[in-house]
Amino acid sequence: MRILVFGASGLLGSFLLPHLARSGHEVIAFRRQPGAAGDARGLEAQFAHAIDEARPQGVVNLIALTQVDACEDDLALASLLNAQVPEMLSRLLGRVPGSFLLHVSTDQLYGTAGPHPEEDFHPLNVYALTKYHGEFPVLERGGCVLRTNFFGRSPTPARASLSDWILGEVAKGATVPVFDDVLFSPLGLHTLSRTIEALLLRRVAGLFNAGSAQQGLSKADFAALLCRHLGLSGARLEPRSIERLALRAPRPRDMRMRSARLADALAWQVPDIHEEIEHEYPAAH
Ligand SMILES: NC(=O)c1ccc[n+]([C@@H]2O[C@H](COP(=O)([O-])OP(=O)(O)OC[C@H]3O[C@@H](n4cnc5c(N)ncnc54)[C@H](OP(=O)(O)O)[C@@H]3O)[C@@H](O)[C@H]2O)c1
Fold first, then answer.
1. Which residues contact 249 (CB under 8 A, 6 or more apart)?
2. Does the pLDDT value for residue 246 go beyond 90?
3. Chain segment 153-181, per-residue pLDDT in tens
4. Could you give the domains of the chain?
5. Is 281 considered catalytic here?
6. H/E element holding 127?
7. The pLDDT of residue 71
8. Mutate to test the pocket of ligand 1, among 4, 17, 28, 63 (most ligand atoms within 8 A of CB)
9. Which of 30, 103, 146, 205 is a Cys-bridge partner for 138, taking CB atoms 3.0 to 4.6 Å apart?
10. Which pairing describes strands 58-61 and 2-6: parallel, antiparallel, or unpaired?
11. Measuring from atom 41 of ligand 1, which residue has the nearest CA?
12. 27, 49, 66, 192: residue to mutate for ligand 1 pocket, most atoms within 8 A of CB
């Protein structure tokens, strides 16, 4: 399959591209033209050029302003990258009959008690709201939207994952503050990449949660599980409440997702978090 990826050099993109290439796909990374205007008109012109040139069968959109606090400070950029960009891409892909768009969204838009089905929505911050707005045009034009959260070894030094950050702090001998009142159900980068590939190949349209088992766990328990798995018995993890941090944007406390819809669509078992950690960080047996 010829697949064009937008947001290719970020955390997920830098893992997904080599994964797709290893699976035998022709993978094209969208590259922003240096010096080109980064406003809506400038980006749209660059997207149009890339789409016309690649004539892709599959497209993955990973462009986003992912820093939650930065979204509060720059509403215009958050709206452009998180909401307008998916609309532009959906529209521009009308030029390539048979093309299929998969857009990655987030579990941040679940702001109430979980585990959440896809119908839930309660944005607590600008990031969540703008990501939510970005989902509509993709769904309206028959694409796939994946709400997710992920961890694993980042291939790019520019962007660390949550697990990279935890292990980096532990390696430094630091005391690592970990939230015991924030729940989530992340997937590893390997499973998420395989899931994206399967959805593209089967052209599965619709809105899906993509997470590990719905009982989820707190970020503190995740950190403890990861360190135990790697035999880091000396890790100094300090469980604490997210309330102790003066964060600019309010954060959801329970982002756990029900991923049964995705499991049905792909005839897939919702993975267990232990398996996901083992996939990302194979322990020496
Ligand atoms: N990281 C997480 O834990 C997490 C959790 C849940 C959901 N997600 C979602 O997963 C997707 C990928 O996340 P990620 O962590 O891989 O993102 P990331 O590392 O922050 O990368 C985002 C990408 O957006 C593009 N971008 C940033 N600023 C831009 C600008 N001004 N103009 C055009 N493009 C710009 C960049 O693409 P290029 O430089 O390559 O062009 C960058 O690689 C996003 O949709 C995010 O909302 C992430």
1. 68, 69, 71, 72, 124, 125, 126, 127
2. no
3. 999 999 999 999 999 999 999 999 999 99
4. 2-159+187-216+258-276 (3.40.50.720)
5. no
6. helix 126-140
7. 98
8. 63
9. 103
10. parallel
11. 7
12. 66
